[in-house]
Design brief:
The structure is a single chain. By secondary structure, this protein is α/β, with parallel strands linked by helices. It folds into two domains: 97 residues, no CATH class; 131 residues, 3-Layer(aba) Sandwich (Rossmann fold). It is built from eleven helices and eleven strands. The protein has a five-stranded parallel β-sheet. The radius of gyration is 21 Å and the shape is globular.
């Protein structure tokens, strides 16, 4: 336990706000729940400001249900990514309060109401084929209390569509740009805005796109400054990072 947390705990005991037994329980808490197949991080929100997020791919529905049950004791909002419809149906039988978005394969249980942010995050896609990744990014950001503007299907093949929505994009505090094929949209947007741009390459494209590698390399080699890049199809990572950036200015 960090020194400042230890001091706060001792003060609560000294002020008779906390019993000795309750304080001992906190001192003995390892910060995770061991479920054998998973160690649920119950201390993550305190450390990082964000609760643990469940990555659903590769887990059974029963394992996801068990992790949700453990997380319910911490009263955090529960987000599960990469969940198939079949798994979601089983989870919803156990926890009907959860919602499922099949367009993003995301499940959410909003246990605690969050005050919407003043500043916005814009999620911009090159094409309709990028929407699954885009919605994963948008729903992740919204799960953490961010207001999101969606600007979809404005790729460079019809760049006038981008210019028609430029005011919405420039109004955002952080911009997430999602593109497959050659991934050029991130560089274009990066040269038009004065805000941080998070680029997300997608696996959309024909054979020579190599499952998103072409878009990834284009974004990594962008000549536009201020662009950072996350992994292929990683909408969650982009939404998470955008939320962190957005709250830096929100909390000033």
């Amino acid at each position: 336990m960090a020194k400042n947390n230890m001091a706060a705990l001792l003060k609560q005991v000294a002020d008779h706000q906390l019993s000795v037994d309750a304080a001992m329980a906190q001192l003995d808490d390892p910060g995770f729940m061991d479920l054998d197949y998973a160690k649920v991080d119950t201390d993550r929100q305190r450390r990082t400001g964000y609760p643990e997020v469940i990555y659903g791919e590769g887990k059974t529905a029963e394992q996801i249900i068990g992790i949700i049950q453990a997380m319910l004791t911490t009263k955090v909002n529960i987000l599960v990514t990469r969940v198939s419809q079949q798994k979601a149906d089983q989870v919803l039988q156990a926890y009907p309060d959860m919602t499922y978005r099949d367009d993003a394969q995301v499940m959410l249980w909003q246990q605690t109401a969050l005050t919407p942010t003043t500043h916005k995050i814009a999620v911009v896609t090159a094409g309709t084929s990028d929407l699954k990744v885009a919605e994963e990014a948008a729903l992740t950001a919204e799960a953490f209390g961010n207001v999101v503007s969606r600007v979809y299907d404005v790729g460079v093949a019809g760049i006038h569509r981008l210019f028609a929505r430029l005011d919405v994009i420039r109004d955002a505090q952080v911009v997430i740009v999602i593109a497959g094929m050659e991934g050029a949209l991130a560089s274009v947007v990066g040269g038009l805005v004065d805000k941080p741009v998070i680029a997300v390459p997608t696996s959309v494209g024909y054979g020579s796109s190599f499952g998103g590698m072409s878009a990834l390399l284009t974004m990594l080699n962008s000549c536009a400054s201020g662009i950072t890049v996350v992994n292929i199809d990683n909408g969650f990572g982009a939404g998470y990072s955008a939320s962190q950036i957005n709250y830096l200015t929100e909390n000033k």
